[in-house]
């Protein structure tokens, strides 16, 4: 669908308290969206909300576990009450619980699948009906280069590959309603998530970045704004003919 988006433009961003999610929320606000920032702890979204409101847009912070069906349904109600119907949904919340498969507990597997993959199903089911009613919508999901296989990340790699399959499937199912569904698959990005990995493996973050740079031809680590730029492209009304795509944003050819 090539029509104009609903006015006001309202975007929901999960995991918006910090890192890539915060950068996406701030970028979409700069591009003219009001923002519903969802994270486990609503108060952790204070900086994001402050940046969005400083950009002249409305914002609300919602505490919700996106893996929980009831919490997602309640969050959708709050967005509706406080801002209106969302026309953009960015599924960014994600976690790691890295272990090699032989050491991985079922709980490590399940929680990572729930937060990284099940959450996407739940939020899409909660927010897509209003997009369908409006005849316009944008869904952007965060995958990862890990979808191609990643040592010690069987749970995360499976979840992020699942996000790709879900993205393509929803593109088929929702396209006729004017809703595009795409995914961004980041490579190595400097955030608390990657800093935590360095701490866990007992490496300095600087050494980890140097190690990563060996396989990044553009010669630098990714920043949250690199990912936000890609998300902003998919969210734009001019991207209406782009759907079911997985865009690797990794400073290297992938996929
Ligand atoms: P991050 O710094 O760890 O931030 C993730 C945010 O999501 C945190 O605010 C976290 O809250 C929140 N969150 C976690 N579980 C949640 C849940 N169940 N419900 C609601 N919010 C939840 O991560 P990031 O590096 O910005 O990553 C963002 C996305 O990009 C993730 O999907 C990640 O898998 C993907 N990605 C990142 C990289 C990278 O190099 N950084 C590479 C590829 C893909 P708490 O702080 O309370 O846990």
UniProtKB/TrEMBL annotation:
Catalytic activity: a (3R)-hydroxyacyl-[ACP] + NADP(+) = a 3-oxoacyl-[ACP] + NADPH + H(+)
Assigned keywords, A-Z: NADP, Oxidoreductase
NCBIfam families: PRK12826.1-2
Pfam families cross-referenced by the UniProt entry: adh_short_C2
Name of the protein in its database record: 3-oxoacyl-[acyl-carrier-protein] reductase FabG
Job description of the protein: Catalyzes the NADPH-dependent reduction of beta-ketoacyl-ACP substrates to beta-hydroxyacyl-ACP products, the first reductive step in the elongation cycle of fatty acid biosynthesis.
Domain Ketoreductase per the UniProt entry, residue ranges: 9-187
Gene3D superfamilies: NAD(P)-binding Rossmann-like Domain
GO molecular function: 3-oxoacyl-[acyl-carrier-protein] reductase (NADPH) activity
Family: Belongs to the short-chain dehydrogenases/reductases (SDR) family.
Gene that this sequence comes from: fabG
Biological process (GO), any one: monocarboxylic acid metabolic process
